[in-house]
Amino acid sequence: MVEDNGIHVAGEPRQRAVRLPQSGHGIASFVIALVSGLVVLAGISFAALMVASGDPEQHMEVFGVVGLVLCAFLILAFVGLVLGIVALRRQDRRRTFGAIGLGLNAFILIGTVGLAFLGTFFRHSNS
Question: What's the pTM?
Answer without folding.
Answer: 0.78
